[in-house]
Design a protein that fits this description.
Helix 3 packs across helix 4 and helix 14 packs across helix 15. The two termini are about 40 Å apart. The chain has two domains: about 200 residues, 3-Layer(aba) Sandwich (Rossmann fold); about 150 residues, Rossmann fold (3-Layer(aba) Sandwich). The longest helix is centred in the first third of the chain and has 14 residues. Strand 3, helix 5 and strand 4 form a beta-alpha-beta unit. By secondary structure, the protein is α/β, with parallel strands linked by helices. Adenosine monophosphate (AMP) binds next to helix 3. The site of adenosine monophosphate has 13 residues, from helix 3.
Length: about 400
Amino acid sequence: MKTFEQLNIEKSILDVIKEEGFDKPTEIQEKTIPLAIEGRDILAGSATGSGKTLAFGAGIIQNTQKGGGIQALILTPTRELAQQVKDSLKKFSKNKKLIITSVYGGMPIRGQFKRLEEADIVVGTPGRILDHINRRTIRLKEVRTLVLDEADRMLDMGFIDDVEKIMKNLPKDKQTLLFSATIHGMVAHMIEKFLNNPVKIEVESNVDPAKLKQGYYDVQDNLKYSLLVNLLKKEESGLVMVFCNTRHNTDFIANNLSGNGIDAEAIHGGFTQKKRNRILEKFHTQKVLTLVCTDVAARGLDIQDVSHIYNYDVPTDPKDYIHRIGRTARAGKKGEAITILSSRDHDNFRRVAQANQISIPKLDTPQIDRVNLTWKAKPTKFRKKRRR
Ligand code: AMP
C-alpha cells in the first residue's frame, strides 16, 4: 500500500489532501493517479464511493495551468454529479486557484457564457456542453484531458450521440479517462472507438459485506407503507434514503411521511434544478433526515453518513439496486440496505438477486402498527409514461 506522497502528486494538492484528513489513497487512487499524471489513457472499472473523483482529479489539477483556457473537460450523466465533481475539484485545486465551472441544463445558459470564457476546467452534462458547442460559447481547442465519468450510466441515459458529437469537437491529441461501473455493450464500443491503448484498472467492489447489512421484509401490499413508517420510527438511524421507482410514488411517500411526523423530502427529475439543489443541500447539512428519491435523482451523489437505504419499490433495472446500496456503508462506515416486498415485487426482486449474483436474507417482520395515509395523490388520468 502506497502513501499519497509516493504517487507523484504535487505539494499544492497534497496539502489539501492532508487538510481533508485522507490518510492513505484508496485502491483506485493508488492505481490511477501516477498513470493519469503521466498522461496515459485509462479505463477504470469503479463503483461510486471508491474515491474516483480524486483519482482522475489529481492528475488534471496538476497538469492544468491557470488562465490557459479549458484544459480538461469532464462529462457526467447527471446535473447533481456535475455539481459534486466541480465542488470536489475546486477544493483540491484551491491552492492553485484554478477556475472550475460546471454547466448543465435546467440552469440559465446565458449566465454560463462568461464563466466558460474564464474556466480552466469544465464539468458538465453532455446535452448542455453540446448546446454550448453549437452556440460557439465554449472553446475546446486547449483541452488535453477528457473524463467520461459513470460512462455506463451516460450511455444508459441515451447520451451516446451527444458524447460522440462532443468528441468530434475535441483535439485529437488528448488523454481520455473513462470510469464506468460496468464495461460491456456500448461502453466497450466506446472504449474501442475513443481510447488509445488504455491501461485497464480494476478494483475490488467497494461494498464491504462486513459493513453493509442487506435484507428484505415480505409483507402484504397494504402493510408496506405502515412497515416503512414503523422502521423509520424504531430504527436508530442517521440520514435515510427511501427509493421509489416513479416520481408519483416519490411524492406520495414523502408527503405521507411528513404527515405522519417524519421529516422527509422528495427529490426527483420533475423538480427544477434549483429546487433539487436546495433539497440536496438540506440533506447534506442534515436539516432534513429522510430523502425519498428516484434513481435518476440519487445517482452518483456522495452524501456522507447515510445509515439506511430503504427500497420501497424494487428497481426494475438490477444495476440500480447496486447503485442504491452503494449510497450507504461508504468510507469505512456501517450501513443497512433494506427492501420492502409485497407479492407483486417478488419476480423483480428475484431478477435483482440473480443478475447481481447476491443472496439477500429475509428478515423477520416485526409487529406492525398500522399507519393511516394522510395525503392522497390527485388522480392523473393521462399519465402516459412512468417517469423518474
Ligand atoms: P468519490 O468516489 O470520488 O465520490 O469519493 C467518495 C468519498 O470518499 C468522498 O466523500 C471523498 O471525499 C472520500 N474519499 C476519497 N478519497 C479518500 C481517501 N483516500 N480517504 C478517505 N476518504 C476519501
